[in-house]
């Protein structure tokens, strides 16, 4: 959930609870004030009846007005003076109405007379109801205003953050584009803009330094390796050596070749990870697969491995250099880990490329198979072929997977 939406929800719920509590309290307070006002009016009417009785030695006439009723009852027993709510029948044609009642007493000629005074609460309740509706309307208006303000004002306030975030999503270390700053007066976003700009500049500087180092390392390492390789080759072809000397020179030559391949593989991985291979071309994958099968024909015949090709036309847009390395690694892996008189099956369609081969009778560890330098102890490779293939697929948003089905190890490249 987005921060602005979460804040709006919390703000809305909190405001709603507070407004409901204050609205109910306000309603009860108004109701209490109006009730107290009715009680004071009833008390005034009571005093007027007492004063009239004392002065004229008689009771005022009973009354049944629109909003007030006065009744007398001769009671032999004393009773308690009290206020209460009641419902009475309005004889003026309004039917039953809610009212406020005061029961009191006066003494007339030595006799106790109960006096019942009732005042209508219709006008008071109408006033309370109007106040309630006004309060409810204010609450709805206020909550609607808060929702709209939070939606538009907060979105505008958070715009610099979203601008930076959108730029970071498409940030490419090699394209040289700077992250521009959205004009804002919010101190936190100004600091964020400054920090992100400084960070990207440091990253780009480190990238340039790394690229320079790789170029230098590639040049400086390949030159002496090539010289040593050449000298060893000449040395092996000239002169006579004892068997022990020949074995030592052969071990040196093999180690030198292995070191050269390792250097090339690691530099290739670094170039792929740092997006240094930019050339892309439309490549017919069917032709490239057939070309690779011809290149490995002698090895396949030597190992008596049969190849089955099920190829449809498929064109991909990628570096021909990387496409060649990807297929070369997958072919080499299928042949190197196969068995004598084994099988290699290659399927190609518009959705995926699949290379299956016979081999060991148990599946490989899927968690480690694409890790660098992961290999069997019996393997002569360096454990980088599948790691490089994985990086190439990731670079072009392809997906490289492994499956073990029906005794065959299957590698799939999903386009």
Q: Report the helical percentage.
A: 40-55%
Spans of at least 5 consecutive residues with low confidence = none
How many strand segments?
A: 12
Strand order of the largest sheet: 1-2-5-4-3
Termini separation comes to 32 Å
For the sheet with most strands, the description reads: 5 strands, antiparallel
Mean pLDDT: 79
Number of helices: 9
Oligomeric state: single chain
In percent terms, what proportion of residues is strand?
Answer: 15-25%
> Secondary-structure element sequence?
HEEEEEHHHHEHHEEHEEHEE
Evaluate the radius of gyration. 48 Å
What overall geometry do the principal axes of the alpha carbons give?
Answer: rod-shaped
Structural class per helix/strand content? alpha+beta
Can you tell me the number of structural domains? 3
Protein described:
The protein has 415 residues and is an alpha+beta fold. It has 3 domains: 3-154, no CATH class; 169-276, Helix Hairpins; 281-414, Histidine kinase-like ATPase, C-terminal domain (Heat Shock Protein 90, 2-Layer Sandwich). It has 9 helices and 12 strands. It has helices at residues 3-56, 122-157, 159-169, 187-237, 243-273, 285-295, 297-302, 320-336, 385-395, and strands spanning 63-64, 68-74, 82-90, 95-108, 111-120, 281-284, 306-311, 315-318, 343-348, 352-357, 399-405, 408-414. The strands form 3 sheets. Strands 1-2-5-4-3 form a 5-stranded antiparallel sheet. A 5-stranded mixed sheet has the order 7-9-10-12-11. A hairpin with a 3-residue loop joins β1 (63-64) and β2. α5 runs parallel beside α9 (385-395). The chain is rod-shaped and about 155 Å long.
